[in-house]
Amino acid sequence: MRLSRVLPLVSLFGAGLAARGLAQVTGLPVHNSGISSGLSIGGEVGFPNADYGKGTAFGGRAAVGLGPFGVSAVVSSYNPKGPGGSQTGLGGYLNLKVFGGPLIPLSVTLQGGAEYVKNSGVKLVHAPIGLGIALKIPNPALAIKPWIAPRVDVTRVSGTGISSKTTTKFGISGGIDFSLLGGLGFGVAYDRYSPGGGLHPSVISAGINYTLKIPGL
After folding, report:
1. For the chain, how many structural domains are there in total?
2. DSSP code of 177?
3. Which range (41-50, 115-124, 139-148) has the least confidence?
4. The whole model's pTM is what?
5. What CATH number corresponds to the domain at position 119?
6. What residue numbers bound the domain in which 178 lies?
């Protein structure tokens, strides 16, 4: 099934399905910068490139840290360029810290999760599995944390009138997070996916968040 333009986000616009360039379904980067200490909520805006589908994505994120374990979620509205309109993506992730501690600036976090979107009877599930490496640089007023997260992307597309297909490819994301003493934070992130065929879907985003410390955690 072919389209004149290959979109990485599943879309059925009466002409067919762009399955060759499947990437993240949220229109936002996959975040794996470590486990938050407490409850973190925030918003984000993403700007995908042409291979991803262009347009703009807006999303909200929430994460909670439970010692070495973390749970996070994202909901987004992505409106790719073209007549199809916006699509809602949902994602949830589990994180496990395999290295790092309160006095150790370097952390390594294992992450697995799933993202989901359904449009015009077509379903896309994207399961990122990867390792996040972050270095927290303390500062009296502003903590700086660069991070990078290579991963394996398992993507399955199915739906009415199309053949189900599962692909496994490589992806990578990274960024820089900034945290103020009062719990306010902001950051930028970049994500790139490698579906082959000369395509390089990517997205850059900027976000802001607030972390609430939870006693005992």
Report:
1. 1
2. E
3. 115-124
4. 0.85
5. 2.40.128.130
6. 39-212
